[in-house]
Write a structure and sequence with these properties.
176 residues; Arc Repressor Mutant, subunit A; 65% helix; mainly alpha; 2 domains; single chain
Length: 176
């Protein structure tokens, strides 16, 4: 795609995919590991299939965070579809119940999307810690390394992010 100078520029989706490739692989690995016995496709297979699906997508991504969210949910859906085709019973979903209405579905509600957007506006570090831990599947140590903070600080970010989301979503959505 040409930029203002007329030179060809790489599609931002390609750049974003490269940027999040490692996160998507780690997330796919974690999701696949939840099935016993394990599913046969490897994380690289899953991420490649999702990439092909995202490249065919007709609607543009509004920004990098939108791309990341769609890519992560695409991994979830691809693995769930594969498990269903091969007759596997899905394990309990690890997404926080306040975001998905009790953990019954990997799709985020409109209220949850809005709450996550407000969290990102409120404190980007809390948002990054929350997404890395709950959606990408990073351990506390990995979250801390990614953010360049101590493990106790990463835990504090997660605690604050959860409290913020509970306040926004209220008691009917798993909040306090």
């Amino acid at each position: 795609m040409p930029d203002d100078s007329g030179e060809l520029r790489e599609d931002p989706v390609d750049e974003w995919f490269v940027e999040f490739h490692g996160d998507l692989l780690r997330f796919a690995r974690c999701r696949l590991a939840r099935y016993r016995p394990r599913l046969t496709p490897g994380p690289e297979d899953v991420v490649n299939e999702v990439w092909l699906k995202l490249k065919k997508r007709q609607r543009p991504f509004s920004n990098k965070d939108h791309f990341r969210a769609v890519a992560v949910l695409s991994v979830v859906h691809w693995i769930a579809d594969y498990a269903k085709r091969t007759g596997r019973k899905p394990p309990r979903d690890p997404f926080p119940s306040e975001l998905v209405g009790g953990g019954r579905s990997p799709s985020l509600s409109a209220a949850a999307r809005e709450a996550l957007e407000r969290l990102a506006q409120r404190n980007r570090r809390w948002f990054d810690a929350f997404v890395d831990h709950h959606f990408v599947g990073s351990t506390i140590r990995e979250v801390a390394d990614h953010l360049g903070v101590s493990e106790s600080t990463a835990k504090a970010y997660l605690t604050r992010a959860r409290a913020f989301l509970r306040r926004l979503l209220g008691p009917s959505r798993g909040g306090a």
